C-alpha cells in the first residue's frame, strides 16, 4: 500500500518505523552471515591443527614402539649371542693362559718391542708359540689357531685362515734359520773377540728369557744357569772349530 503526501501523519510514521525495522533486520542478517563465515574459517583451522596433532601423536606412537623394541630383552637382530659364542669356543682354547700377562697390550707396542730386538714380528711370535702348543700327532691344528686367535692371544684382534697361520709359522722358521746362520758366521769369521761374543750371547739370552717369561714360562735360577752354560759350551766349541778351520786354510 502506498502512502502519498496526503496520507495522515500517523500512517507516514508507521511506514517510516517499518522501514527502519526492515533495515535493522537486513543488517542483522548480514552480520550473522559474516560471523558464520568467520566461524567456518576458524573451524577449518581447528581441523588443520587437529591433523597436525594427529601427526604428532602418530610420531610419538611410532617412537614409543621403537623404544619398546630396543628395550626388548631378546637378542638384537644381527648381534651374536655371547652365551652361544662362548659355547662355540673349544675347551682347550678357553683354558689357554699362555699370554695372560699381555692382557691390555696393543699389537703395535708388542711389534715395536720385537722389531727392536729380534727379526720376528708380534704375529710370527704369537703364532709360532701357538703352533708349538697345539701340535698334535697328525700335525698342527691350523684351523683351531686361526679361528680362535683373538681368544688365545690378547693383542691379536682378527681371526686368521689356516693358510695365514701356516704362512706366519713358515716365516718364523725362515727368520730363525737366517738369524742362526748370520750369528754363526759372525762367530766363526773372527770378527768378534771371545769377550764380544759372550756379550752378544748374554744380550740374546736376556731377550729370549723375557719372551719366555711373558709367555708364562716360569724359569728358575737353576734352569737359567743351566741354559746359559749349555749355550756358552756350544759357543766355545764353535770358536774352537772355527779356529781350527782358519788354521787349516792358512797352512794350505
From TrEMBL:
Residues 224-251 form a coiled coil. Keywords: Coiled coil. Residues 82-91 have a biased composition (Acidic residues). InterPro entries: DUF5806. Residues 1-91 are annotated as: Disordered. Pfam families: DUF5806. This is Uncharacterized protein. It comes from Natrialba swarupiae. The lineage of its organism: Archaea, Methanobacteriati, Methanobacteriota, Stenosarchaea group, Halobacteria.
Amino acid at each position: 500500500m502506498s502512502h502519498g503526501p496526503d496520507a495522515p501523519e500517523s500512517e507516514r510514521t508507521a511506514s517510516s518505523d517499518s522501514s527502519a525495522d526492515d533495515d535493522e533486520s537486513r543488517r542483522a542478517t548480514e552480520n550473522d552471515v559474516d560471523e558464520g563465515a568467520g566461524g567456518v574459517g576458524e573451524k577449518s583451522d581447528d581441523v588443520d591443527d587437529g591433523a597436525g596433532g594427529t601427526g604428532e601423536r602418530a610420531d610419538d606412537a611410532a617412537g614409543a614402539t621403537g623404544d619398546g623394541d630396543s628395550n626388548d630383552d631378546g637378542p638384537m637382530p644381527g648381534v651374536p649371542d655371547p652365551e652361544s659364542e662362548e659355547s662355540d669356543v673349544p675347551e682347550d682354547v678357553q683354558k689357554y693362559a699362555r699370554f695372560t700377562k699381555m692382557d691390555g697390550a696393543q699389537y703395535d707396542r708388542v711389534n715395536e718391542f720385537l722389531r727392536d730386538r729380534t727379526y720376528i714380528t708380534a704375529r710370527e711370535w704369537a703364532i709360532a708359540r701357538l703352533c708349538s702348543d697345539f701340535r698334535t700327532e697328525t700335525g698342527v691344528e691350523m684351523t683351531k689357531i686361526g679361528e680362535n686367535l683373538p681368544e688365545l692371544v690378547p693383542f691379536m684382534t682378527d681371526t686368521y685362515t689356516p693358510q695365514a697361520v701356516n704362512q706366519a709359522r713358515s716365516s718364523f722358521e725362515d727368520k730363525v734359520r737366517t738369524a742362526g746362520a748370520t750369528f754363526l758366521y759372525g762367530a766363526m769369521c773372527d770378527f768378534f773377540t771371545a769377550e764380544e761374543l759372550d756379550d752378544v750371547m748374554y744380550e740374546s739370552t736376556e731377550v729370549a728369557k723375557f719372551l719366555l717369561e711373558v709367555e708364562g714360562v716360569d724359569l728358575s735360577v737353576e734352569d737359567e744357569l743351566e741354559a746359559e752354560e749349555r749355550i756358552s759350551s756350544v759357543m766355545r766349541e764353535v770358536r774352537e772349530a772355527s779356529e781350527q778351520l782358519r788354521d787349516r786354510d792358512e797352512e794350505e
